[in-house]
Design brief:
This protein is an alpha+beta fold. It has three helices and 17 strands. About 10% of the residues have low confidence.
């Protein structure tokens, strides 16, 4: 079947890295499968579809499960009839197909700009460390993992793997850094708490209020400015809430030492609670 194989528990390991041969997918599968059949320690095999790499593997008896991968095929040792040069018919298992549609490059953004209130790492709920941005199919595989997961709003694909997120984030990084790609599901990429991102057109204060840090926000719209100051608060572990000026780019990260924060009338302040 198409896809990788892995273990539900401890023990997954490579027994031997080999090479396969063949012209068709069936011939290539048989070649890698025979490498596994001839090795007494091999429990299952996985081969690359973009090279002739064939890995003989063992989970030390643990359960073997499917693991979606765009550029892998694999099988369990002895899961179909043995093949020889005189065999005229071959029985194979029904392929587990992964339907990956080509991705329009315009759907990819280089700054992970998803219309939401979170920071770059906010909302990460799943990570795949065998999806690489440098591979020919990396983008397609990473976006496939997001499109087939109802909780996924955006992805970040780096040289180490593909992360899935369940909340949006804006103004993460501008310009083309060349070291990661992002995919945004436009129909899901929206603010979690309305256009204000939790901000109120008032100052916030409370008993024992003090400044944790003084930052400067950026942005051209009120929403972008709120998000910028809000994200500064998110990055600071001591910050409980934030307040920004509406006539300068001052952003104050604040704490009440755990006391309740409440609104305070102000014509030139906006603020919000962390998170």
């Amino acid at each position: 079947y198409i896809g990788d194989l892995s273990s539900e528990g401890n023990g997954a390991r490579d027994i031997l890295a080999t090479k396969y041969s063949g012209a068709t997918d069936l011939e290539k599968d048989i070649s890698c499968r025979q490498n596994c059949a001839s090795n007494s320690e091999c429990e299952y095999w996985v081969r690359a579809t973009d090279s002739n790499g064939c890995w003989l593997k063992s989970n030390d008896g643990n359960t073997i499960v499917k693991d979606a991968a765009w550029n892998r095929r694999g099988g369990i040792k002895g899961d179909c009839n043995e093949w020889t040069s005189t065999t005229t018919t071959t029985t194979t298992t029904t392929p587990f197909e992964i339907d990956v549609e080509p991705i329009d490059e315009e759907e990819w953004v280089d700054h992970c700009d998803c219309e939401g209130c979170g920071g770059q790492g906010d909302g990460e709920f799943e990570y795949h460390d065998r999806v690489f941005y440098s591979s020919a199919s990396g983008k397609e595989q990473c976006s496939y993992l997001c499109r087939t997961n109802a909780d996924c709003v955006r992805t970040m694909l780096t040289d180490s793997g593909c992360a899935l997120y369940n909340r949006g984030a804006r103004n993460i990084k501008s310009g083309n850094s060349g070291d990661y790609f992002c995919y945004v599901r436009t129909e899901r990429c929206k603010t979690e708490d309305g256009a204000s991102c939790g901000a109120t057109a008032q100052e916030l204060t409370g008993v024992n209020s003090f400044d944790v840090a003084h930052e400067w926000y950026s942005g051209s719209t009120e929403l972008e400015k709120d998000i910028s100051c809000r994200q500064a608060c998110s990055r600071n572990s001591a910050c409980e809430y934030w307040v920004r000026s509406t006539d300068t780019n001052d952003c104050w990260l604040k704490s009440n030492g755990g006391n309740t924060a409440h609104n305070k009338d102000s014509k030139n302040r906006r603020g919000g609670i962390k998170g």
